[in-house]
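[SOLVED] Need 3D model of a two-part complex

Original post:
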Amino acid sequence: VNTGTSTWQSAGLDQSDLIQFAGDLADVSGAVIRAHFRRHIAVEHKSDRSPVTAADRVTESALRAMITERYPEHGIIGEEHGRERAQSRFQWVIDPIDGTKAFITGLPTFGTLIAFLVDRRPILGVVDMPALGERWIGAHGEATCLGARPCRTSECTALSAASLFATTPAMFGEQERERFEALSTRVSITRFGADCYAYGLLASGFADLVVEADMSPYDYLAAVPVIEGAGGIITDWEGRSIDLDSGPRVVAAANASLHAAAMAVISPRRSEL
Amino acid sequence: VNTGTSTWQSAGLDQSDLIQFAGDLADVSGAVIRAHFRRHIAVEHKSDRSPVTAADRVTESALRAMITERYPEHGIIGEEHGRERAQSRFQWVIDPIDGTKAFITGLPTFGTLIAFLVDRRPILGVVDMPALGERWIGAHGEATCLGARPCRTSECTALSAASLFATTPAMFGEQERERFEALSTRVSITRFGADCYAYGLLASGFADLVVEADMSPYDYLAAVPVIEGAGGIITDWEGRSIDLDSGPRVVAAANASLHAAAMAVISPRRSEL
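Solution:
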């Protein structure tokens, strides 16, 4: 599954330039977002009833402008402003504020997600927490870093010792919720409300499992290189690797053993979910 | 209900000394806690299955030592080490780490709660977030401050525009959950997982409602002066003011109108909960 550093070379990409540029993007999005945070800005609701603010839109617009200037042939998929150049084999997938509810309510646990994809597979990801000053960058062939330091997932292999994160219990459908609750009863700690921060905490060995449903690709694609480059695993609930065509359900784990243990409880292969 | 500044004078207390001392306590607890945070320390489970770490215990011990040295006649009630001098009319109530699950999993949203009570009523409270660098201090007769600046609750009076916080949906019994979910469907945003941080966010106008059950006095007493000094209201689910003898359920709101609107949905007076 891991296509390694050859992905960059065979696609004619300059790995270090792209990683540097992804960090530049997060510098800009962080500055825009911090200028809006806790400023009581107006909240609107999208057609799916999820909240959105001017900060989401202006942040994504700033990132789109930077990408289009630097890599005019690359495609962009953003939560707020849709797609452009969808036929390119290179795509940037952006969620300017993951955890808008946290952002609105003054909680600093929202983040910005930036993924770079080649042939629909994420090979570079940034999980940036602008109000916390924490940034994870993961890239194929490199160790994931939190800030300047490499990070590693935990060595926890027993469900009974594991911490489990999900954004909200409301994200699960009825049968999904049964499976999630079955998993929840087997772990040490279940936490809600961390949004994308949970992926960073997993990469740094503080969280052990993240199980989510009702997600869109921009919610998890950036997490894939971050988690894999730290020694973790992330798949859908059927165990398939994650790409732009993945569905709404993901399972991330600190290591293969813990992933298998979690999959044995939640995978629909065992229960025809 | 508000006994005002006369509480201090009639009890023979030096208000500014006590407020300064409460801040000194939070400086010490913050330093102890930050020295433990994200250090992979061992987690034990108490008889109620809640997790506890050496950081909880050593932090509370440090605060107890400071209080006993400075105010040897004052009582102390702490989550980890119980009561001493229970007959004193002056009591310090301490939760060294509120949000131990967050602390364990690397999330910086845990806090330290320090309350000072006269005749079982809280007149001084600190909500300190040592990993976030945010501290709310509230005291009878003074405006609550976040850091050096006074803060105010929001002017939101409509449930439909309000944000609602609770620690976890698992804290509600069956009938409580029905009431909470009825409230949740009426508000704009429901958030879980903020622990005591929600009280600070309420005092600063970012959160509008905090509704909790299954709490102990050390979980909410410190929040009372913080919320009241910022213009908010906190009571139990029956609408009674909070003191050391309060039960496990609290409702905090940005203002009286919003409190009344929330109480109309959740108060057991209307439903014989």
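Edit: The interface with chain A takes residues 38, 40, 43, 51, 101-102, 104-109, 132, 163, 165, 168-170, 188-194, 197, 201, 204-207 of chain B (CB under 8 Å).
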